[in-house]
Amino acid sequence: MAQKVNFKTLSGELKTLEKRLVPDKRLAVLDVELKDTLNPVITLSGETSLPEAKKEINSFLNDRRIAFADSLRLLPDSSLGDKTWALGSLSVLNMRAHPGHASELVSQVLMGTPMKVLDGQNGWLRVQTPDNYIGWVESDGIHRLNLKEMEQWKRSDRYIYNHLSGYVYDSPTLKGNIVSDIVLDDLFEVESVVKDFLKIRIPDGRTGFVRKSDCLSFTEWSNLEPNAHSVLSVAKQLTGFPYLWGGLSSKAIDCSGFVKLVYFSQGVILARDASQQARHGESINFSNINNLQPGDLLFFGPSAQRIVHVGMYIEKGYFIHSSVKVGIGSLIPGDPKYNAARKNVAACRVLNSLDTEGIVRVKNHPWYSVQP
Fold first, then answer.
1. Could you give the 3-state DSSP secondary structure of residue 271?
2. Annotated catalytic residue: which of 215, 255, 348, 365?
């Protein structure tokens, strides 16, 4: 028999369960609401990308003998059909918090980034990137695939662009017409080699040519053994590039996007935001700069519980970060590059934590590579 309960109390308990199931809503969708319809049956509505969360919420209500109508929508939405995968088709594609150009820019998607498609609305699609980050992109900026097509892409001959920026031409010459711009870490399929050029296929079907010497094969790139020298070498090439909130490309970049892009150039996928990056890797005692090593991530903010900025350690108390522009900062009070308003509250080591949670090599990520 259904049990009559205090609706306000029940809703509060459900919100507590929701926070436990999804503590970071940047990484999963779980929005649940109970509607008291003034009859013995309560309506459970909302949406989630987690089948296990839907199951647990149902169990939560059943265990309390609550009569309810389950209208909790499970993503990907059924209206998408079987094309619930996608690849970025532009050199850089903006990702927003909500569907619409006026919404906050939360991140960006590079060409060839594999994504799960969760939902659609008025020409926008809600997607999840390989680091589990969720946001909305314009549907014309991606190419949707079904699971079979996605598996074929993972087995295709792919290359990554290994220079800061360049162009795709309509002929194998630098004097050809431009098909698209291209930036560091863009990924694409290759159809053939023509002289010193690769004939590439962009996910939306456009073809063109890029210099082979500006690219790395997927095999070579994904099997790189990242080290502090290689990571910092790429980081320093971005010196002077402008800051952009939500930026994740060599066009303009925010602080966490900067360290993420640099590590991705070495075949490593980091979490998206600074507060997320701080959860992963080996925690380092940052009170003594002698404990720090080149390539370590330094986190700044009011406290370790409220991190708002990240940089990458170089040596001798100096670090490189994106703030107004990519440049050098210092941990040493009195140094001209020291900013007293920026408090160092945490540090982590990435290079000895490969293939742990939040620090995954591309070759071991199932969205990029066929796994054993």
1. coil
2. 255
- Is residue 8 predicted with pLDDT exceeding 90? no
Secondary structure (3-state) at 18: helix
CA distance 284 to 306: 17
Residues 237, 252: Cα–Cα separation, whole Å = 13
Using left for φ > 0, alpha for ψ between -120 and 50, and beta otherwise, residue 123 falls in left
Please name every residue paired with 277 in a beta bridge, in sequence order, or none if there are none. none
pTM above 0.85, yes or no: yes
**At 299, which amino acid appears?**
F
Q: Is position 255 annotated as part of the catalytic site?
A: yes
Model pLDDT, residue 1: 38
Q: CA 231, CA 262: separation in Å to the nearest integer? A: 6
Q: In sequence order, what are the beta bridge partners of 361?
A: 268
Residue pair 179/169 in contact (Cβ under 8 Å)? The answer is: yes
* Active-site residue, from 280, 321, 348, 365: 321
214, HSE (Cβ side, Cα atoms, 13 Å):
23
Return the closest-CA partner of residue 152 out of 230, 59, 85: 85
Percentage of the chain lying above the pLDDT 70 cut: 98
Please write the tens of the pLDDT for every residue from 212-225.
999 999 999 999 99
Domains belonging to the chain, first-starting first, are 7-74 (3.30.1340.30), 79-153 (2.30.30.40), 156-222 (2.30.30.40), 228-362 (3.90.1720.10)
Q: What is the pLDDT of residues 321-366, one digit of tens each?
A: 999 999 999 999 999 999 999 999 999 999 999 999 999 999 999 9
Helix (H) or strand (E) holding 258: helix 255-264
SS3 201: strand
Catalytic, 143? Answer no
Choice among 143, 215, 280, 309 that is catalytic: 309
User: How far apart are the C-alpha atoms of 99 and 113, rounded to whole Å?
Assistant: 20
Distance CA 344, CA 218 (A): 36
C-alpha 358/C-alpha 206 separation (Å) is 33
